[in-house]
Fold each of these.
Amino acid sequence: MLLMQKLSTILLLCANVFAASDAEVLAYVKKGIASNANVSNVEVTLNGKKPVPNMNGWQAYFVAIDADVKQGAEIRHVNQNGTYFISGDSMATELVNIKTNERYNDTLAPDFPKQFYTKNNLVSGNANSKHKVAIFSDPLCPFCHRYVPETLSYMTKYPAVFGVYYFHYPLPTLHPAAVTLTKAAIAAEQAGMDNVTMRLYTVEVNANEKDESKILDAFNKTFKTKFSLADIRRPSVLKQYELDQKVAQMAMVSGTPTVFFDGKKDSSKNKYKEVKVK
């Protein structure tokens, strides 16, 4: 079970929250999580909210949760997202439309923050392209391995139509090697290399590899570069890496690939195919 799910089960998710203000909702969530003896230093912030479509009276609250969690003898700091649904004096962590079978936890997300459409993340098209597409991906995610190269190769043919913004979002618990690969890719981007994102998906390395030198060797072999561990630990590389993680948190990204099309989460990941390009 994901740690976020564990934290969520701590909450007493019942009716009688109150006719809540934003501050009261956040305080209630914080109190519920902090009631667990293994959780301390809890901070809960609101990333956004929006009405739930076709569910009259329900609002989705998107929150970020920071906490220290004791696991055995170890204390880990966690920073994770949660979605809570509020209607009057009721709260729920999951909401499903029984007529359409839509699970709103999967389909709803805050609108993509406009300030993060930046040139540092632009991999195709330009700021004036008709449509903006933001992609969050882990280069060692099997689905991403199929999806990202295919999607990019299509959209790069139409730069006036699609401005594609790529955000590195490695999943270290699933693919430990992806973190080092990501930092190497950022170093390559900052060095002015072309087509880094597409080439990143051709690096052959065991996703479970944890030896940074071996991972970097695989990257250098593919890119014909000589990046060192010091290169991928430069402050500028770490700053961009941390920024991508921050954007992912604000956009409530929890898995890969996650796609936003014109600022809205695209659960199908294929809205770009509906656009007439000629």
Amino acid sequence: MEEKVRLLVQKLTKENKTISTMESCTGGALVNSITNIEGASNILKFSAVTYSNEFKIKMGVDENIINKYSVYSANTANEMSKNISQFTNSNYGIGITGKLNRVDKNNLYGDDNKVYISIYDKDNNKYYNYDIIVSKKSRNENKNLVVNLIIEELLKII
């Protein structure tokens, strides 16, 4: 996967594009994979890990969207991706929310072991939405599945 991330950083650099992330269930795994690559500071503006609804809302996610669709939804992922892109004036915003191998007693709605991903392309005001069922035993393996999917899709979009 490291080679794909390196290619992503190179591609964004060549296109003079930037990226920001708002991650929940992946806990910063995406931004970690990006910052492991030399030159990441050219393309990465900001990253937020918003585990709680409170901080998703503080970062601009509409509380009504969370209440209507659940924190675990494509709608919330879209709010995350667009708001982080706008907050940082990045060309691309990534929003990730979902459940990895656990029941969330504070948010009982939403499918278990399903992750919602939104890539927001600010320049074209367009969302790219994906969801993935994560079925590995460890959280780390599931995070890697999600990150790999995002990197592959970003490489297609850019």
Amino acid sequence: MKRGNFIASIFTLIVTPLFAIPETIINNTGMDKGFKIKAGEGRIHGHIKLKGVNSNVLDVKISGADTNGELAIFEQTSLSQGKGTPLHIHDTQDEIFYVNEGTYYFQVGDEKFNLTIGDSIFLPRKVPHAWTQVSEKGKMTVVVQPAGKLENFFITMSALDHEPTLKEIEKIFADNEMQVVGPPLAID
């Protein structure tokens, strides 16, 4: 075989599989244009009014459906002073919280943190964490990567027609890829 033909054959073998890559991998989000979500609005679901661990309002800004499950961004308006999440674990998601208004108390593993306007906190997957709202009102931006089932968790909690029991809360967490491992975080 001539050297030129050999190089062309090798090049063809290397490049051909690239053309077989599904479009979903190349165009990760499946979208071909951006979009805007106005302040005070939620994408897809409108305002999600939570029940259970707190009675806050959640707006989906970027849905996991928008990013092929890669990312979700929520804005939470906190209306439940002294309440928060039970200590729980996400096996497959990292979370980032950014405080827009108010003050919060977080636990990540064995460490505890006070957060106020402008502060951020990273909650790695597989590490127990919880938070409690300290101020009368507050607002946080929550980034979840990958999106997982957290959006579904919020929709399920908002659809309840009653305040769930601890057993119901634990089941809803488990159904959405989270595990409750302890009580809510008390404010020290």
Amino acid sequence: MLRAIANSMVACNAQQIKLDTTASNIANVNTMGYKKNKVIFSSLVYQQIVKEQNPVLPDKADNIYDGTGVKVAVVDKVFTMGPLKETGHPLDLAIEGPGFFGVILPNGNTAYTRAGSLQLDKEGSLITSSGYLVAPGIKLPENYQQIMINQDGKVKFNDATGIPHEIGQLELYDFTAPATLQRVEDNLFLYTPAAGKIKTGKPGESGFGTLKQGFCEVANVDLVEEMSLLIEALRAYQLNTQAIRTSDEMWRLANNLRKI
């Protein structure tokens, strides 16, 4: 009974993490560029049951093992591409394929994001919706009339006379293991050594996606799938709490036994 309670307790802890993770995915279903998390479980150690110590077992019970529960092995990030949503806004960019936008943080470090809902600050610099400068740093003049961003990342604008001018080049970044990036606030990711070498290139080059102006990549969250996972985790949590209550009741009955 003690082992049943212990096994159910660790299972409740694991399912609680899955509940929290799934709820976070559902809450960000409308967040541009959001990448969902996925909980992966692994079994804890198994113990072999020795017949000499358990005489009630049958004679051929030589390979019976007793599990000690389950744990969360990793909360993995899923970087599959989300659907593209047409916005018509000239500063909205979607990456079709692999790659991240670079974002310059106030401390000078570079963060990375798939969210391409961009804006212009008061000085005409291209920034994210959270106000961070987009690498490598592109600034439009005050008299620009129209902005064009090609699939290969070239940024152009038309002046007051309608003459086009090229003003900069957007770059993309990618990693050997993007799932190991550290997620931080504002839908940004920070580099970690486990992510491997940072690869930099222009959109459309080998290994990088292309840009699509007037579109945004929405979250790669399937609401129906996440609701199913939420119900599954909730039922598993309820099952384990019921197992704890049942084991506790059996223990109480055993403690109250009286010899006649």
